[in-house]
Design brief:
With 468 residues, the protein is of the alpha/beta class. The chain folds into 2 domains: 335 residues, Alkaline Phosphatase, subunit A (3-Layer(aba) Sandwich), CATH 3.40.720; 72 residues, Arylsulfatase, C-terminal domain. Strand 7 and strand 8 form a beta hairpin.
């Protein structure tokens, strides 16, 4: 349940008045004039045990303040265990398998570099743009390398960032030697440390929209703390035209990782300060999350596993909601996922989802305003690393989690997360009927999301390709 938010409904009523929309059903009323702004901030590979507000090892005062003033989620999940799938799910509000993006879109031209978010997919940016919102993305896209899959083709007015999975934080070169820093559909040089550039462009976008006095949706997709592990005082090592692997000692990685998170936190503080300075804080909904769990460079706290696995450490992530004067402070144990963000953002903006693409997610807004968590529902995950023969599958139903083909585990395992957050006590042998029912539901879901799914351009791998 949501704790510490008892005043939220009263605060909202004072902010909104008593008007209702007879066509809105159970959708809550939010401030209509002026329309709320929305900022979604996503970290990259940030772990459940990294932030100080989660008892982690890195001091993050800006995010701590958001957690203290807003809602901190303790059972929030990314829809994927790696980058591209979660981003596809977040922007469409649907399981990423429906968009044909169940896996990372690699920079390797011999792999699936030609895949991406196809024109038939409708994003929340497109819906908001159609309703008069200014829309911007700064930072990581990772949903296609071609012009036809550029963010400007998916509802964003402004794009400043990179399209691959990661770039050198200084030279902005991807892992295959391509310069990758874009202003819209133009690849251009812009000196600077990536985290600083993302923060600066985010602040500039907010200032520009404040001057225009219109509502905006801003998606801030940080690279930090994804590798290459480079703090702000390190140096570039990637150059155009060459593939140069990162070689760092463990203590160097640990130091750089901490600095990368600290720099991101400082920039998030600048975004919040800008909203306050421009008197936009009370009419701006901000949500922070990570795209998946941490790698071994970070910490997932008490959770088992890391990024690329469907153990909790691969997909249970830190998440914060902040909206001063509207959302009360508290902690939520509601089981939610990143595909719920699309429904939530559209709900905040009072915009209907696309009729032709029903959302899989549900809106968090009623819960954030002091209501009960959404009704218990099954949640599903699927992930298969490129060219690996075995697909991992997982299902969550209440406290129970079934995982199939988990790395370093049995073929099928069952856990009660209320009693065993670390997924150490496999109860599959004690609960055969529950295992059978969940496995059947998981298999049915797998078939359902693939029916009518977007087909990506073929082939997935070029003949003879050996690695991403």
């Amino acid at each position: 349940m949501l704790t510490g938010a008892a005043l939220a409904v009263a605060v909202l009523a004072a902010a909104c008045g008593s008007g209702t929309d007879p066509g809105a059903g159970d959708r809550p009323t939010v401030p209509a004039r002026p329309r709320p702004n929305i900022v979604v901030i996503m970290a990259d590979d940030l772990g459940y045990g990294d932030l100080s507000s989660y008892g982690g090892w890195i001091e993050t005062p800006a995010l701590d303040a958001m957690a203290a003033e807003g809602v901190r989620f303790t059972d929030f999940h990314s829809s994927g265990a790696v980058c591209s799938p979660t981003r596809a799910g977040l922007l469409t509000g649907r399981y990423q398998q429906r968009a044909g993006i169940p896996n990372v879109i690699y920079a390797n031209p011999d792999w699936n570099r030609h895949h991406g978010l196809q024109p038939r997919e409708t994003t929340i940016a497109e819906r908001m743009q159609a309703e008069g919102y200014a829309t911007g993305i700064v930072g990581k896209w990772h949903l296609g390398y071609g012009v036809e899959t550029n963010p400007l083709r998916h509802g964003f007015d402004v794009f400043r960032g990179y399209v691959s999975g990661n770039v050198d934080y200084f030279s902005h070169v991807d892992g295959f030697g391509n310069h990758d820093w874009w202003d819209g559909e133009t690849n251009r040089e812009e000196p600077g440390y990536v985290t600083h550039l993302i923060n600066d462009h985010a602040v500039a976008f907010i200032e520009e929209q404040a001057a225009a006095d219109g509502p905006f949706f801003l998606y801030v997709a940080h690279e930090a703390p994804h590798f290459p592990y480079q703090g702000p005082n390190d140096a570039a090592f990637r150059v155009v035209g060459e593939q140069i692997p990162e070689t760092r000692e463990p203590e160097q990685v640990r130091r750089a990782y901490r600095e990368m998170v600290e720099e991101m936190d400082t920039g998030i503080g600048a975004i919040v300060d800008t909203l306050r300075r421009l008197e936009l804080a009370g009419r701006t909904f901000v949500f922070f999350l990570s795209d998946n769990g941490a790698t071994p460079a970070g910490s997932n706290g008490p959770l088992r596993g890391f990024k690329t696995s469907l153990w909790e450490g691969g997909h249970r992530v830190p998440a914060l909601a902040w909206w001063p004067g509207v959302i009360g402070a508290g902690t939520s144990g509601a089981v939610m996922t990143s595909i719920d963000l699309a429904a939530t953002v559209l709900d905040v903006a009072d915009i209907l989802p696309p009729a032709e693409q029903p959302l899989d997610g549900v809106s968090l807004l009623p819960h954030l305003l002091g209501g009960e968590a959404p009704n218990e529902r099954p949640l599903f995950w699927a992930y298969q690393q490129a060219r690996r023969p075995v697909e991992q599958l997982a299902m969550r139903q209440g406290a129970w989690k079934l995982i199939v083909n988990g790395p370093d585990g049995p073929d099928v395992a069952l856990f009660n997360l209320d009693d065993d957050l670390g997924e150490m006590n496999d109860l599959a042998a004690d609960e055969p009927e529950r295992v059978a029912a969940m496995r059947e539901a998981l298999d049915d879901w797998r078939v359902e999301v693939e029916e009518g799914a977007t087909v990506q351009p073929a082939p997935l791998f070029a003949p003879g390709a050996v690695g991403p």
